[in-house]
Each structure stands twice: as structure tokens, then as C-alpha cells.
Amino acid sequence: MTKFFSLFFFLFTGLTTSGAQEALEESSITLSEILQGIRKQEVDQKSFLKNYSYIGRIVSGKLHKNGEIEEENLYESRVFVRGDLRKTEILKIIRKGKELTKEEIEEERSVEDSKREENRKRWERFFSYTSPFNPEMEKRYLYQLLWEERMGDRMTYLLKVKAREKDEALINGFFWVDQETFGVIESRTKPAKNPKHIKSMKTRFTAEEVEEGIWLPHTIRTEVTGGFLFFKKKFGILMTFEDYQLNIPLRDDLFQGKSSDELD
Fold first, then answer.
1. Which of 61, 64, 85, 169, CA to CA, is 20 to 30 A from 232?
2. Pair 80, 261: CB distance under 8 Å
């Protein structure tokens, strides 16, 4: 995948892991071979996924000291995907603690295009960036193979990725790559440069293997500290993905006309 749903990723001042670390032997796979494996997996996965759908849930609100995110806002939907086309059917919305009625949700579907574009850009600020493993991004990053590590029942390669320049569109962080399939199963990153009025931002991404060799997002948790002058606020955003249905038949007219396919 050339796009990861994230913003995706953790502000890491130090690396803490729960899995067992293992030193790489001299005869082990090279960094170059791992990067080639990741890129091939992304291409093969994109080719495999024709039509698919999932239920997405976004919770956002105040971030408490214990790490809990207060459920001030919730957006739940069934998402249908065909290539770069996306259609969303809203299932539930909670805004500032109040659940919207069916009538109010219908009004959401008629949001004017200008507002929809504004919302899209606002959410992309937190949840979209080009994969650092995309061949077009190779010259913009430095890559380092740290060690092997067990994550649950999978052995992974732990990679450190660092942007060569400070840019909001780039990230710094750590990626756990499955040794068998070369899918990225977890990452913890931060922006190479914080967006305006953002003091810090860290995101943790986890993926699930929905079919052999097919890794799709499972959770994306972002913690943000925003600030302007003397005002500071901490908030969190948790995205969850479930009930994946792969390569299912989808009607052509599903993606035609106006749709509520942007996050509000």
C-alpha cells in the first residue's frame, strides 16, 4: 500500500518493546532484501485487493493522564473500496457526547462539497502520508535494520526509518516487518516536522493478516498535544477497523454521484 491510514504514528523519545530481541547473524537477510520484500508485498497486495469493505470506527476526545481517550466524538461507518474509489455509509455519529438522530445523519450526507473538502484536508493532516517504503520516497529516507524481534507468534525485522529533511509529509519511526510475508504489522512514528500549532504527535499503527500475506489496518492510535501561545490541549484519536470483506462484488453505481465518503 502506498498510503497508510495514519497519522498515523508514535512520538518516540525511546524505544520500548515487549517482544524478545534477537541479534542478527552475519548470514541473515540484508536490509536491501528486506526493503525489496516490503515493496513487493505492497504491490502484490494492491493487485490482489479489487473490491473490499470494512467497518471503520473513529473515536476522538480529551486524552487523560492514564492514556484513556474520552469518547467525545465517534464516527462509525461501513466503507466500500475499489482501487482509489471509496464510498462510506454512515452507521453512527456522536458529536460532543450527543448521538445524532437518523435525520441529523441524513443531513451529514448532504454536506456541501466545499465543507467536505475542508473536512478531508483536516483529517488527512492526521491520517495520511506516503509510505516510506514507496520507491519514489527512497531518496527522502534513511533506513536501518536494528534486530529481529518476536511479536506474538510472528518473528519480525525491526527497522528504523528517518527522514532526510524536516517536512510535515515525512515521518520518523520504527516498523516491525513480518519475516514470512514482509507485511508491516506494527509501526510507531512521529512527523519529521510537526504541523502548525502541534507541539507533539505520536501514533501507533497495528495491522492484522486478514488473509495469508494480506495485512490491513487494525488500529491506529494518535496522541496529540496542540498549542497556541499559552494555550495547550492534549487529545487522542483512535481508529479501529474490523469485519473486512475481501474481493466482494460491488455495484458500479455505488461509487457514482455524491457520497459521504469523507470523514467529518
1. 169
2. no
Statement: residue 97 has pLDDT above 70: yes
Q: Residue 28: which pLDDT band, with cuts at 50, 70 and 90?
A: confident
Query: Which secondary-structure segment (H or E) carries 32?
Result: helix 31-48
Instruction: Report the number of distinct structural domains present in the chain.
Output: 1
Cβ–Cβ under 8 Å, residues 174 and 189: yes
Q: Is residue 260 part of a domain?
A: no
Question: What letter would DSSP give residue 25?
Answer: P
Helix (H) or strand (E) holding 44: helix 31-48
- Tell whether the model's pLDDT for residue 3 goes beyond 50: no
In a domain? residue 182: yes
The overall average pLDDT reported for the chain is: 80
Catalogue the long-range contacts made by 82-85 (C-beta closer than 8 Å, 24 or more residues apart).
82/50, 82/51, 82/250, 82/255, 83/50, 85/255
Between 261 and 154, the higher pLDDT residue: 154
CB 209 within 8 A of CB 97: no
Is residue 151 situated within a structural domain? Answer: yes
Question: So what's the pLDDT on residue 2?
Answer: 42
The residue range of the domain holding 110 is 3-13+30-242
DSSP string, 59-88: EEEEBPTTSPBP-SEEEEEEEEEETTEEEE
Helix ranges (DSSP H) in 60-203: 102-109, 113-127
Q: Cell numbers of 209, please?
A: 493478516
Residue 253 has pLDDT above 70, yes or no: yes
